[in-house]
Amino acid sequence: DSGVTQTPKHLITATGQRVTLRCSPRSGDLSVYWYQQSLDQGLQFLIQYYNGEERAKGNILERFSAQQFPDLHSELNLSSLELGDSALYFCASSVGEYNSPLHFGNGTRLTVT
Amino acid sequence: AQKVTQAQTEISVVEKEDVTLDCVYETRDTTYYLFWYKQPPSGELVFLIRRNSFDEQNEISGRYSWNFQKSTSSFNFTITASQVVDSAVYFCALSEGAAGNKLTFGGGTRVLVKP
Questions:
Q1: Is A48 within 8 Å of A41 (Cβ atoms)?
Q2: CA of B52 to nearest chain A CA: how many angstroms apart?
Q3: A22 pLDDT band (50/70/90 cuts)?
């Protein structure tokens, strides 16, 4: 158990809808990251927050947004969902901001129908 | 731009055989970190090792060992005396020094260990 908690585990929704994925980092970790894993794109970095502030951005679509709250949990919001957004979304956390090991949650599997 | 290549998409071995997973990376930075993660059938990503670009010493942890060679931009991973529980997808990843913790992952190598 990595200590990173993601909810929900599974999510099935229709195209055009909006969903929110939630992540609680390991105790003591200040950085939170979101990654997307799909069959065609592999594991792709979306965004990083450190102590509430955005630190790095990857190939995150404009329809997607995230934030990290004062209690350090994070939410990833996906809107105007398309079939191609179906993927496994991982949250990870780390102690530091740079190059410390990431510890991943079990992921949220999103299916868009 | 940074890139990680894992040329082997799938490797199948019989239990107790050794298996080596190749990882080749590209980066323009002199400071960077390399990682290996394991993704078992249950789906989670498990951290195995982190290596910085200034430390080329090989590392051994139980049945796992890693060979880092800057000259060939490779960071290979060997499982000695494989076991069925080693069956998983293994990912190599790269993080450049000034880019926070933005990991660039390779495509992964699926290892199937048969009893």
A1: no
A2: 9
A3: very high
